[in-house]
Design goal:
- By secondary structure, the protein is of the alpha/beta class.
- The longest helix is centred in the middle third of the chain and has 17 residues.
- A seven-stranded mixed beta sheet has the order 1-3-4-2-5-6-7, with helices on both faces.
- It has one domain: Rossmann fold (3-Layer(aba) Sandwich).
- Bound molecules: guanosine-5'-diphosphate.
- The site of guanosine-5'-diphosphate (GDP) has 18 residues, from helix 1.
Length: about 210
């Protein structure tokens, strides 16, 4: 089956809001996460491009939605959503982000799945859980990327992963929500992430053909 070469990712467009997002042709996956969780580093590691997703983040700056696509797969996109959770951002701005993100998740037809990037030392914070719940309400698959795994000893990292997975099983959402460890620093977990993204982005060719009446 065809696979996307994530290393060929290129910048497509920035949109200031969901209403100004590009065409709904094709398929896309979105990356979300608290600011400083490691989202830009994860996208840059996946794409092998240290500059694709900007790691600079000044609180209060206009938060853009950034789209990337691939020369050989122009209708497949990665979407870098604005980081959430700046302590210093005024409540009105936070509310606006919440409204925008929930609208994007619930109304974007091209969206096939959501990657939520979380620092493995601080998983499932309030806003992460809210995002997961919005996605589940819309029956949108979610992949939890527990990044900065290098910051914990292997045993502690593994038990965090197991605890997060158990949490999803207990909530009976493990059919929609998967999780893995990741480290941008150690380049750990890239293949697993690529498999998830390929599964979401590429149309399935191996389904049985519809039976003719
Ligand atoms: P973003 O705000 O979610 O886009 O976060 P960044 O990607 O800018 O990362 C925030 C900080 O965490 C930066 O100082 C990164 O160098 C660091 N960081 C990101 N990923 C990793 C990782 O896998 N391991 C370690 N040790 N540090 C990381």
């Amino acid at each position: 089956m065809a696979k996307i070469h994530f290393r060929t990712a290129q910048f497509l467009i920035s949109a200031p809001s969901i209403r100004q997002c590009p065409t709904e042709e094709g398929t896309e996956v979105a990356f979300a996460g608290r600011s400083n969780a490691g989202k830009s580093s994860a996208i840059n590691t996946l794409t092998g491009n240290g500059k694709l997703a900007r790691t600079s983040k000044t609180p209060g700056r206009t938060q853009l939605i950034n789209f990337f696509n691939f020369p050989a797969a122009p209708d497949q996109r990665i979407v870098d959503l604005p980081g959430y959770g700046y302590a210093k951002v005024p409540m009105a701005v936070k509310k606006k982000w919440q409204a925008d993100l929930s609208e994007y998740l619930q109304q974007r037809d091209a969206l096939r799945g959501l990657v939520i990037v979380m620092d493995i030392r601080h998983p499932l914070q309030d806003f992460d859980t809210m995002m997961i719940n919005w996605a589940i309400e819309g029956e949108m698959p979610v992949h939890l990327l527990l990044t900065k795994a290098d910051k914990l000893k292997p045993g502690a990292a593994k038990s965090t992963l197991l605890a997060v997975q158990k949490h999803m099983r207990d909530a009976q959402v493990d059919d929609l929500v998967s999780a893995q460890m990741f480290s941008a620093l150690k380049k750990q977990g890239i293949n697993q992430l690529e498999d998830v993204l390929n599964g979401w982005l590429l149309p399935q060719h191996d389904e049985p053909e519809a039976v003719q009446e």
